[in-house]
Amino acid sequence: MERTFIICKPDSVERGLVGQILSRFETKGFVIVAAELRTLDADTLGQHYEEHVGKGFYDDLVAFMSRGPALVAVLEGPEGTWATVREMMGATNPMLAAPGTIRGDLGTIFTENLIHGSDSAESAAREISIFFPDL
């Protein structure tokens, strides 16, 4: 079994879409092995987005991601889970995301695109260790 990490970002919580998003993953057959609603702080976001520290959009990203609660979660499934989750999310820009994807069906704003998902098995392991160090 493989695990991956997701964040239902503050916009998805504000819009009441978390249940719908998680339902898509459960319907696909993934198991939620950990989940917690929490407001993310700057230190945690700094670890999570370390590759973006110092970039022009970083402060706006941290402000958005810390403005309200987000749901952080770990999903488990067969090999390739992280890649399938990314496909289900859709393109980063919701206006370009395919219908049938989370962002394609539910998103409209590039900077507030509902969900984050690990982009590799290695990223998933790193991100899970940040948000769920006891897993």
Query: What portion of the residues fall into strands of 2 or more residues?
Result: 15-25%
By CATH, the architecture is named 2-Layer Sandwich
Helix content: 40-55%
Please describe the biggest sheet, giving its number of strands, its sense, and whether it closes into a barrel: 4 strands, antiparallel
Task: Sum up the structure in keywords.
135 residues; Alpha-Beta Plaits; alpha+beta; 19% strand
What this model shows, in words?
With 135 residues, the protein is α+β, with helices and mostly antiparallel strands. It has one domain (2-38, 70-131): 2-Layer Sandwich (Alpha-Beta Plaits), CATH 3.30.70.141. 41% of the residues lie in helices and 19% in strands. Strands 2-3-1-4 form a four-stranded antiparallel sheet.
Task: Briefly summarize what is shown.
The protein is of the alpha+beta class.
List the helices and strands and how they pair.
Blueprint: E1 2-8, H1 10-14, H2 18-28, E2 31-38, H3 42-48, H4 58-65, E3 70-77, H5 81-89, H6 102-106, E4 115-117, H7 121-131
